[in-house]
Amino acid sequence: MQQPLSSFKGIMPTIGDGVYIADSSRLVGEIKIGADSSIWHMVAARGDVNYITIGERSNVQDGTVLHVTRKSAGNPQGNPLIIGDDVTIGHKCMLHGCTLGNRILVGMGAIVMDGAVVEDDVFIGAGTLVPPNKRLESGYLYVGNPMVQKRPLKENEIAFLKQSAINYVELKEEYLAEAE
Q1: What sign does the dihedral 112-117-120-122 (CA atoms) show?
Q2: Where is the signal peptide, in residue numbers (predicted)?
Q3: Would 180 be classed as within a structural domain?
């Protein structure tokens, strides 16, 4: 069976304690994953022309693509992909060279493009397109193509952002126990 981790230019992904990575996923190059996070089936993550950082207790669900923007004369730092703590990334999302804060839910099929910044405590609805270089303000629901700020989050929705991450920590523990 092929391993889900491989090097690029001699750099391997680094994995924190208690991380679950599905065998069918593929992580290449400069990727750092924090403790208790999970990478689910068929995720493709390429830290080849810049780096990817995933915080603690975050989960990247099935079929998601994670990539970065190359450094260039017009963009000397390029755009790494930075994902904070307690982030839930739904099935079949595309995150490309963007920055996500903490306690965020990215709905199924959403696309977040280069240079976008998502502050803490944000819901991004399923199928939403976040255009390049947009900033999503903390405490709101964003939906649409292109995205619009729909409304402030309710207290129970803000609480759910953390609970969603906890749910996936519990699930990945079950998967890790199965593998023993």
Answers
A1: negative
A2: none
A3: no
